[in-house]
Amino acid sequence: MQIKVDRVAKTRIQDVDFSNIPFGREFADHMFVADYVDGKWGGFSIQPYGKMMYTPAMLGLHYGQTIFEGMKAYRNANGEVMMFRPMDNFKRLNVSAERMCMPTIPVDLMMEALRELLKIDVAWVPTSTDSSLYIRPFMFATDEFLGVKPSDKYRCVMFTGPVGPYYTTPLKVMVEDTYTRAAKGGTGSAKSGGNYGGALYPTKLAQQKGYHQLLWTDSIEHKYIEESGTMNVMFQIGDSLVTPPTGDTILKGITRDSVLTLAADLGIDVQERRISIDELKSAYDKGQLLDAFGVGTAATIAPIELIGYKGQDLVLPPVAQRKMSQLIAKELTAIRYGEVEDKFGWMVSMN
Ligand code: COI
Which residue puts its alpha carbon closest to atom 8 of ligand 1? Predict the structure, then answer.
């Protein structure tokens, strides 16, 4: 692949306070761009991060053909920059593409593009262990047409930016039993923009009641837990780690898979099965609901402080007491920053 490179005249890196990086507000100097025209990807370039021009009739703005990924690169203890399971994210981008009737983009092509991008913007990868370089590949329909049909043209862009934690405090989540995030046969397992857009209004209502995020339930009975706002969700019930199985209504989280793999490796009893609110409540009443947390690329491992359900708050044990999730989080961090052996082969060097 030939990538045309156009570098910035002057970096913006000196404007970033690396000791206090918010999530999603700082963007590195460059971005990768590819265009899908006449049935193939081409026009590969790395160019200054910045504005793109489109006309108002751009299809992706109207009918929702937009998909994205979120992944991270870390600077490890030896100063090397390592990407966490990047191929899995690019594969998932293609799963989303198929569901949204968009073209897939070869994983090797995206890997090569990401390596080039990281080489140019390597200085933007933070050093501290509570921050990382967030990588956002995304794709959208670019036909200038108002008919409802799959676009013929698409653009794939990948940009990066240093980030700190997405959630900075333990979360108060509310069980949603009116609105639905995803229904069977819908697009819930695709990482498409509309899934997030549709969640904003019910989330706003919960925030007006003092919660941070929703705990989504199934669309039919509003009885079984699905996922939370921007992440998959897990519970410690007694000595077991329990999480809903993925399917077409739940995103197949890569952090989710990593946490389950690590937990099993640590000898923890891992159960992927449906969990009803009634089960959660009954475990809580018996003092067996010991932990709840979200897992995601941006969220990492985000402790849930309480779960609101029909006006009652199930208040979970103090975060400091949650040994199981802390052990898993510690292991995951140690792998990411190269402090222990990467026995699952998750870290991929940028070189
Ligand atoms: C991620 O975890 O990277 C996500 O894509 C969630 C995002 C909506 C912040």
Answer: 230
